[in-house]
Amino acid sequence: MKKKVGFLDIINKRIFFPPAIALVIFVFIGILFPENFGVAANAALDFVFKYFSWFLFPVALVMLGFCLWAGFSKYGNIRLGGPDAKPTMSKAVWFAIALTSGIGVGITFYGVYEPVLFSMTPPDFLSVAPMSEAAIFSAMQFTFLHWGLHPYAIYTTAGLIIVFMFYNGKQPFRCSSALYPLLGEKAYKGIGDAVDSLFVFAVIGGTATSLGLAVLLIARGLEYLYGIPSNAVSWLIILIAVAGVCILAAITPVSKGIAFIGNANTILYIFVLIFAFVAVDPLKVTELLFSSIGEYFQNFIHLSLYLEPIARTGWISAWNVFYNAWWLACAPLVGLFFVKLAYGRTIREFVTVNLFAPVIFSFVWFGFFGGGSIIMDKFHGGTIGTLVEKIGSDMSLYAFFAQFPFSGLMNFIALVVVVLSIITLVQAIMVAAAQMTCKSNDDTTGEVAPPKISVIFWGIAMLMIAYTLLISGGISALQTISVICGLAVAIIFCFGIIAYVKSMHNLKEFDTYSNGDLSIYAKNEEIASKVENMQVQPSACTDENGV
């Protein structure tokens, strides 16, 4: 008779319980003592900003350089899973999931709000007039800085330092596997367990931040469209509904549940993008987009390193440093999720799809929505900025569509985009967190689903944390937890980068397929490409998984 396997037999207790207990304590303190919680959180935030901004902000530039080296050096041809490994999904589906499980929620929340806000109230250290040309171009540059190469370099780094050791080094599906080249088997003992527990805590908190922002955006949309008040009660109902859908989707195999929602969401993204481009002023939007991209790259190094050491207005910390810390907090398990999708791909493809393709989309999104909003208000009598000032940041996307015919329909579609974005993100994190906190399994392709009960637990945990943050301090509390967790993650990532470089220079020791001979990947590259063209791409319509 087969022995019944219980929950405690499934999970890795050393990784599961520390963050689980810490998160439960966190929730209860936030609910019982919301004011004290907010004061303590702000004190911790100020400490991190004061003493570690110099590290948290420039570290993204280091990670970008690391991604470029990893993808475009001679090691970029390494195929994940071995030279004969075949991808499990098409590049189109892969890109859709990577985009919507990364910063999909963020671009819908801030796509209009941030460029308009920075144009109307430019940073004091710039000394430029509101809505002037200088203010508008600086607004677009800072927006691209926050949502362009930096976040995706952080996410891609999180995946890179794990993906090779998992598929080619045959190490466990754990964040601590990134440290295996430095620590050996010690990576899975005390230090490794502590790293994995910290990462789980950080990413659940960071994802709860995104979930909280999405709830505010959804609640505002329901209020604007249907008159349902945006308050603590509606937030809780939305959270329960989103968590329920996420759990149902996340307990299905990756290629069925997440891919379907990711595909649908990407189609809607493209639809609203086309509408935004055509509805405003295509010529002016295009000119502003290209000019802003040029300004961004021209000043990229300065933007990436500037910490206003003289002016000290606090703007850089509140925006630039916060964003980097937010990405870092979410990165470990987003990176693990990227790993689950990468079987059969080369390292170069991993970097291209997870870094460059989403960045291009992000440029277009903020150019059409943010740039389009600025043009509407400045040249066509728009009231987007006025509505945002009057109602709040969560009104920005709906304020944009309110300027045009069919605003009711477009705002409904925008609401659906937000809902699908958060579902894709949350279910991706639930699956990755559940798999990392369970005992090892025989997953070699990233397709094995973790136990359902573990997935459900982490979904409920994110729901409770997001609600705690919302009722104890709103967006400010949501931001705080991200910054604090991101600092610890950044430090560990730096060691992960060193470990990755070591593994590449010692392939004979860490690559179970090549024995140090990179030529086996080069020989199979052309064959693998032909196989993908014949087998993977047509599956976008006929795959048995519905991908």
TrEMBL record:
Write out the entry's keywords from A to Z: Cell membrane, Membrane, Transmembrane, Transmembrane helix, Transport
Q: How does it sit in the membrane?
A: Multi-pass membrane protein
The record's listing under Pfam families reads: BCCT (PF02028)
Acetylation listed as a keyword = no
Nucleus keyword on record: no
What InterPro entries does the database record attribute to this sequence? BCCT_transptr (IPR000060)
Q: Where are the transmembrane segments?
A: 21-45, 51-72, 92-113, 149-167, 198-220, 232-251, 258-280, 325-343, 355-376, 412-434, 455-475, 481-501
Superkingdom of the organism of origin = Bacteria
Q: Where in the cell is it found?
A: Cell membrane
Describe the family membership recorded for this protein in Swiss-Prot or TrEMBL: Belongs to the BCCT transporter (TC 2.A.15) family.
Question: Mind telling me what this protein is named?
Answer: Choline transporter
